[in-house]
Amino acid sequence: MKEKNKECKKISVMVALGIVASTAAFAGPGTMANNNMNNNTMTEVMTIEQVRGLSDNSPVIVRGYLLRQNGENSYIFQDETGTINLEIDQEDWGGMSVSPSDYVEVWGEVDKNGASMIEIDVSAMKKL
Fold it and tell me: Average pLDDT for residues 73-83, to the nearest whole number?
């Protein structure tokens, strides 16, 4: 009888570990986000400081505030590490309006125009 109880406990522990492992896999780390709503590329949420060190066309996700418009499709974006220009085309707004007090998550890619001009070409965004 003791042998049977040991075997049942082993199976129960294995099942419990399997459930925990599969739950963690689906939840994923808290700083991961979908880079583009149309594909499955994943990337970590980054700071503006980190984005500045990336190469041209690198996929990025940033969180912060749209401070103001800086041109037809150009906006100043700020997080805790600095500011950067965002290029947001009309279709990327998705009908959403954003004020400077709205905390947003932005998906896009680095657009480097020379050594000093770095911006993010936005593909999608959402309010958090």
Answer: 96
pLDDT of residue 29: 35
CATH of 32-127, one of 1.10.10.410, 3.40.50.2300, 2.60.40.10, 2.40.50.200: 2.40.50.200
Written as one letter, the residue type at 91 is E
Amino acid at 37: M
Q: Which of 123, 103, 100, 102 is nearest to 111 (CA)?
A: 123
Compute the distance between CA of residue 47 and CA of residue 51 in angstroms, rounded to an integer.
Answer: 6
Question: Domain residue spans in the chain?
Answer: 1-29, 32-127
**Cross-strand bridge partners of residue 63:** 105
